[in-house]
Write a structure and sequence with these properties.
With 109 residues, this protein is an all-alpha fold. It is 69% helix and 0% strand. The protein contains five helices and no strands. The protein has helices spanning 5-12, 21-53, 59-81, 88-94, 98-101. The longest helix has 33 residues, at 21-53. It is elongated.
Length: 109
């Protein structure tokens, strides 16, 4: 994440600041990554829902289901890295289907 030099200098002027410049950059990167993963979850769930609404079934649906589970799993890992331990709010926000949640962490060969 790129910040203007004046922003960094302003942060370093405050010795009692709640966080330093490095922490500021790290928090920005964490937020950006979490947002990116959230967008991927939205797209994967939307694709699965659109396919279901169109009456699709079969192998293509299974592929979409696997992709959604993979994106949700990656999002949950990222959330945990950011310090969020409870995913129930994310499940509600993204309306993640139970069949996607049931596949989290599953490895198919």
């Amino acid at each position: 994440m790129v910040h203007d030099l004046p922003d960094r200098k302003a942060l370093t002027r405050y010795s009692n600041a709640a966080f330093n410049v490095l922490q500021f950059d790290m928090l920005g990167e964490m937020a950006a990554s979490l947002g990116l993963h959230g967008e991927r979850v939205e797209r994967a769930i939307a694709a699965l829902r659109a396919f279901d609404e169109a009456g699709g079934e079969g192998e293509e649906r299974l592929t979409l289901l696997r992709a959604a589970a993979q994106e949700v799993w990656a999002y949950f890992v990222q959330r945990e890295m950011c310090g969020f331990r409870n995913n129930s709010d994310a499940v509600a926000q993204y309306r993640i289907p139970g069949e996607v949640l049931a596949r989290l962490g599953a490895v198919e060969r």
